[in-house]
């Protein structure tokens, strides 16, 4: 999951200043962790400690109240007895990569992805986005080829993965919906040569860059292997200590991450 956290940090400086190129400093000045990292770590903590997803997400979200959450999620955090709010936003997909790394059957990955999503994002598109990313991570780390991953995600989830980034990039803009960002983030992985190029692809679309790079980075790590020691060190330096400790414990527990 370090690849997902790194993607979030890389993309953080370009969310408010979108770019349309893959030529940029990978860890630019001002790069930081955002809600994508906080909530990915929360999902990892829920898995490690066998806690309800909603409880862990709420716990970590409240510890980092200025991480950049959307307004409806902030309201969910503040409520004494929060309920899911029918969201189709990509918050469910950005935080789900630990599920794809931790569970070892397709059925378990899909079920846990749904559980991790539906405590907030119980709209069918919110659940579908989480399941698509988690399944992509699972298939990527268990030896599926990119053509096989592309074909399965298209058939199962109805995403159009026949498009190219070259055609998408000029007209693409900021989109926080699962249906408008998850397929594009998956294409960034599918067209990437390695982890870094996948993340650069995601930022270069000029959209919700931290979330899309988080998604692409998690799947790319599962497919291409662990990020470099240099990238890992950047993540360590950027994360709060307790977030890094959970991430490190998750990686040591699920050694293939």
What is the succession of H and E elements?
HHHHHHHHHHHHHHH
Under the CATH scheme, which architecture would be assigned?
Orthogonal Bundle
Shape: globular
Strand count: 0
The proportion of residues forming helix, as a percent range, comes to: 55-70%
Average of per-residue pLDDT values = 97
What tags apply to this protein structure?
257 residues; mainly alpha; ADP-ribosylglycohydrolase fold; 64% helix
Walk me through the structure.
The longest helix is centred in the middle third of the chain and has 18 residues. The chain has 257 residues and is mostly helical. The protein contains 15 helices and no strands. It has one domain: ADP-ribosylation/Crystallin J1 (ADP-ribosylglycohydrolase fold), CATH 1.10.4080.
Q: Would you spell out the secondary-structure blueprint of this structure?
A:
Blueprint: H1 2-11, H2 35-49, H3 53-63, H4 71-78, H5 91-94, H6 97-102, H7 106-118, H8 124-141, H9 146-157, H10 165-168, H11 178-191, H12 195-204, H13 209-224, H14 229-238, H15 241-253
Helix pairs in contact: 1-12, 1-13, 1-14, 2-3, 2-15, 7-8, 8-9, 8-11, 8-13, 11-12, 11-13, 12-13
Concise summary:
The chain is 64% helix and 0% strand. By secondary structure, it is mainly α. It has a single domain, classed as ADP-ribosylation/Crystallin J1 (ADP-ribosylglycohydrolase fold).
